[in-house]
Amino acid sequence: MVRVLAVNGSPRRAKGNTALVLRSLLEGAEAAGAETETVIVDELELKPCTCGAMRCWYGTPGECCIRDGMDAVYPRLRAADTLVLASPVYVPLPGRMQDFLNRVCPLMEPRLEFHDGRTRARVRPGVALRRIALVTTGDWWERENSARLVGIARELAEVMNIGFAGAAIRPHALAMWKDKQLTPGAVEALAAAKRAGTELVRDGTMSEETLAAVSRPLVPEETLRGMYNNWLRGD
Length: 235
Ligand SMILES: Cc1cc2nc3c(=O)[nH]c(=O)nc-3n(C[C@H](O)[C@H](O)[C@H](O)COP(=O)(O)O)c2cc1C
Description:
Blueprint (H helix, E strand, L loop, with lengths): L2 E6 L8 H15 L3 E6 L14 H4 L11 H10 L2 E7 L6 H8 L5 E8 L2 E6 L7 E7 L9 H13 L3 E8 L6 E2 L2 E2 L1 H20 L4 H7 L6 H13 L2
Parallel strand pairs: 1-2, 1-3, 3-6, 6-7
Antiparallel strand pairs: 4-5, 8-9
Helix pairs in contact: 1-6, 6-7
Bound molecules: flavin mononucleotide (FMN).
The site of flavin mononucleotide (FMN) has 16 residues, from helix 1.
């Protein structure tokens, strides 16, 4: 059975738009037979990595020297074959999510390889992880606004020498709501996120067509810009 571990780095935790899109994706993953679990980074009381000496590679290989909420997450990270990182765009990501990403180092072993001009490590024996996917939401209109975050998730997968399964990007996420209700366009985007979750488990990747449907425009760019600019003026 495919085991999916989702890590939600939104400071709004389970109440945010990131959690909303993530939940749909995980529903799709479960429909395809996966076992899923979600960790909320802000509930872990994470300490940042303070070990500049890479002790988890050369001192106590595979073990982080910091004792905190990550202790309970490491066994789940080692057992999952699919890691779904979920994060809002915070130019580029929330600080605690960055702390989490730094703390993933003990899962890798420093048997370095050089491919296409880039240095790559690998996951340790006993770590089941084979792919990383990303769920991200932002409030600006265009999908490209998430590019930096997509690059970070892809880079982590490549550094670990595992697959990058794609990014479910929900731009102008605030426009999913009107009068505290999901708009019809948002309902369609969430249905696409659910299909993406099914594809992730079934195919190990998410199709471009489905990911485009997750990101479908909900309002014209000028409308969104008008909303922002009118707020600024206090209209
Ligand atoms: C500090 C901060 C920086 C942000 N930077 C961006 C940004 O660069 N681009 C963007 O589209 N949205 C940005 N946002 C908006 C969030 O990405 C957006 O509201 C997201 O959907 C929040 O997800 P959540 O509801 O799960 O917290 C920013 C929000 C905050 C608080």
